[in-house]
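User: Round two. Same drill as before: sequence, then structure, for each protein.

Assistant: Same drill it is. First protein:
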Amino acid sequence: MPESVRVGALLVVGDVITDVVARHRGRLAPGTDTAAVIRTVPGGAGANVACWAARREGTEVRLVGRVGADTAAWHERELTACGVRPLLVVDGRVPTGTVICLVDGDAAAERTFLTDSGASMRLGPGDWSDALLDGVAWLHLSGYLLFAEASRAFVAVALEAARARGVPVSLDPASAGFLGALGIDRFPALVEGVDVLLPSRDEACLLTGASDAADAAARLSRRVPLVVVKRGAEGALIARSGEVCARVPAVPATPRDTTGAGDAFTGAFLAALLAGAEPEQAAKEGCRAGAQAVEQTGGRPPART
């Protein structure tokens, strides 16, 4: 893992989504009205990671994703405003993906997602070019790409190209629910060659069958050189070679909306690695970004001024 500055851009490949965030208090009332505060904001795990990474001064961040023609211009403007260079493929047949985020203000701002992936997982091998790696020092892949045939093929092509150029690759498994549907037995082969894995606690435990996050991190690190398990209010674990080597505490925060907290961690962590930080220091920066993320609505940092 990096012990010096890596010269080049961070290339993020992943989902660009329109988030409809509905904050309510207490249980939903079936068959009638539940009062809520509703906002439409740009989101998507891949796009969020890119925006949080771009917050670090001096970090060049590029984003490849697929969007519908319906909101392509809006998403491009929003990404650019966060300092990201968007490299978006516009789909003329399918609209941009949409996620309805139900955020319970009485349950530590815990969220439930209703997901229509739309154009995002229609990213395919034909959308890849080896030229995308020109000037790139690190490739990050959103795990959502693993959950559709076309985007899985894209991941395989991108991984092969990155390995050929010696570009390190990280991946965030993205969704315990979708991982279960994919089949956890398929996961190791799909991510072979990845250098850094950044699962949540639930994803790590699901992938290993372990009930303890530290045990899960240790097991995963026998397959992937560096594993960073995100544990929300409990901070993060770092594991290598079958052992947990660091425990990083969370930064205290008052949650308003936990949407995108893991993406914030990942973006800040990767930007710090590129700047030469060791993984433990990078994880501290990730925890700080995660704390900032939960205190606002939506999964993106504020646009640059």
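Second protein:
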Amino acid sequence: METTHRVFVGDSRDLSQVTDDSVELVVTSPPYPMIEMWDDLFTELDPAVGEALAAGDGRDAFEAMHAQLDRVWDELERVLVDGGIACINVGDATRSVDGSFRVYPNHARVLEAFERRGFDPLPDILWRKPANSAAKFMGSGMIPPNAYVTLEHEYILVFRKGEESRSFEPGADRRYEAAYFWEERNRWFTDVWTDVRGELQAIDATDDDLRERSAAYPLEIPYRLLCMYSAYGDTVLDPFWGTGTTTLAAMCAGRDSVGYELEDAFLEVFDEGVEAVPALSRSIGRARLERHREFVDRRREEGKGFEYDADYYETPVVTKMERGIRLREVSAVHETDDGYRLEHAPLVLE
């Protein structure tokens, strides 16, 4: 099996190099409006943002920032197939503007934008991030009533384009081989993720400016979402590519990918580390199998049995749908004019 991974340096408000109805899944994390680190970017896109902030008008600045994201959502509506899924990782912002502190509900504004474009919202996920500090309050400290709750979660908003789910030919191997284990389903398809931890970005620590412009989520998040909402042979798009975390997840999960990024410096850093992808994909696959075997041992200790065996691995499984699971590992990486072509082989345990 082969996958292709294209990365374009360009503005994601114009995804002209992506054809209509050619993407099955979007996994992305846009710059969050009203988070100060993104002020300059949004002001470059629309000077009205800077003018509103300078005038102390947080509401107008918030709406002007989202108006730029809206143009990206227009493009997603065009390139997603009917029944395709969009997963948007976004956090709300807390900020004082002109002396007034408030929360800016980015997740609600994005939800509204997708509904206006005809997407059906699906149950979302709260990703609880590790706390960076023992301090759990903002404002007046221990004296009521003017303290504020600390935001320690982000949203993964999930949308389907249109009312109908995707359909596949009966018994499609690329779907059944991409199945997940029963216990993975129970952990992944819960609405609160507390077992995902942040990680340092894979960026040269000496490049302070590049690090400042990075806000990547942990690899575990896009990897899970790809396994949950796509099959082998599908294409995943990340219009806010950043450090390439979604592409890295697609490489390890055996899906095609497309990314758009304004800063070509991020692509250079990604290129330097891509040789590690085969080992990473192998370790992820082996870790999934090892966790499954630990689950098997625990279930047997509880006196529970299994009715089925996996076709490609010497392990029992809970459901008939898991029998065809066949994990992939990257066996070779080839650079192309606009990205990479990867060869994948079935994961075999030694």
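The longest helix spans residues 277-301.

User: Perfect.
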